[in-house]
């Protein structure tokens, strides 16, 4: 998926979650019911109740990282990859029993033939034949809704967080199996790779009080990164800014329209981090004394928009960003803009892309500074954002076959299973050149992102062809992780009442209009007042009850 200028939050979530993943009966809270016959699964499951159904965590010791995780950062692997035969196995014996499982998942690419050599090899290793029913990831939500409303639901269905809108959440409640009897507590130990998935990712897999999803874990520090052209900065002698004012001053120095060079792209995403703006719903609330306040009601939110607006007004933002034309990443790598913000996967992606045509190209992550030039206030990223679900009508044998697939797919980096899933058969789908797995033409065609959608191992950084990217990325995450905290209700699935589900939808377009100068900050303030009258204050009361029952009351 390409990353365009000023992406919507939905598009951004999709692009970053998929790219990052490729790198490697419980009582509910009292607030879960409402007068007048509200959905019985509105609300969330308390951490106390979640603890009763979460799988036991057993860390994988099959392969140790070169750079251990710190402050929530991803573990890093910088060494050369070993030949397949020299790799350890995380699934010593076949767990599949020869069944056939139909799986529906998104795919951003051309689907390989169903009987291709890659599918045959992985299915043989797992002991289960998979009938892949892949759908175009860009229009996946449309197909998903139709399938879940039908009687022909596949054995497994992949649902990303950005598609959990409309009737999808209620379909998860009614259409998919409770995996607690198979995975809760020590039961998960039958599936060692699933047991090694971080507990926070499993907690986000609790829907309607039951353990239903098989997660793809995300890195805790996988937040928007402000990238800059390190090679050009060093060549020009530019100092990396450490405050909003320094950023603005440098941006004016860099910008040279006659030379078709501008300082930056749209920096709204970074501005939100610089000014300590809360994440998206449901983690968009904070206590100010005894008052519960939404992100859009904070001074931080308005100040972030105002700072971004001033960058546009100063003419330091690439003009195509204002109109939403072209691709910000392409302009960045071409040297038309020197600073941009994007998902973590671009660190390696741009480096790999430019390695042959521009060997001197180097990208670096700018340390995020606070609004006053001091330490920033950052928030940990969601522990998971994509899940696989198993059909509620599936037999016990079918559920076990699905879990065998997921356990194989969740093999950690550096194992035989991980190599097979990610690169296919050595000699057929990839070769090992100087310790770097390189796909053959057949590998490019057949080895697509499919199996890892059924479950995935802990998120890591591992690029044997560009180990410096691993060092830089892990170092950046370690530094930024030191300034991170958990927002209220962190890592908990929250179902808002349907009557308020779309209450804040207009704010993204309004934000973009404000920073581009088409509307004023005062228009945002008016929209907030309208939001309060339209249900925002009622939603606040609902969340207050939810948060207090979760034990996260004001200090």
Structure write-up:
With 555 residues, this protein is an alpha/beta fold. Helix content is 36%, strand content 14%. The protein contains 21 helices and 19 strands. The chain has helices at 9-22, 47-50, 117-126, 140-148, 168-175, 180-183, 192-195, 199-203, 230-236, 244-254, 268-274, 299-313, 319-323, 328-333, 346-354, 396-409, 416-423, 441-446, 467-481, 507-515, 521-549; strands at residues 76-77, 100-107, 129-136, 156-160, 206-207, 210-211, 214-217, 225-229, 262-264, 285-288, 291-294, 337-342, 363-365, 378-379, 384-390, 430-433, 436-439, 461-462, 484-485. It has a five-stranded mixed sheet with strand order 3-2-4-15-7. It has a four-stranded mixed sheet with strand order 9-12-8-13. Strand 2 (100-107), helix 3 and strand 3 (129-136) form a beta-alpha-beta unit. Helix 20 packs antiparallel against helix 21 (521-549). The longest helix has 29 residues, at 521-549. The two termini are 43 Å apart.
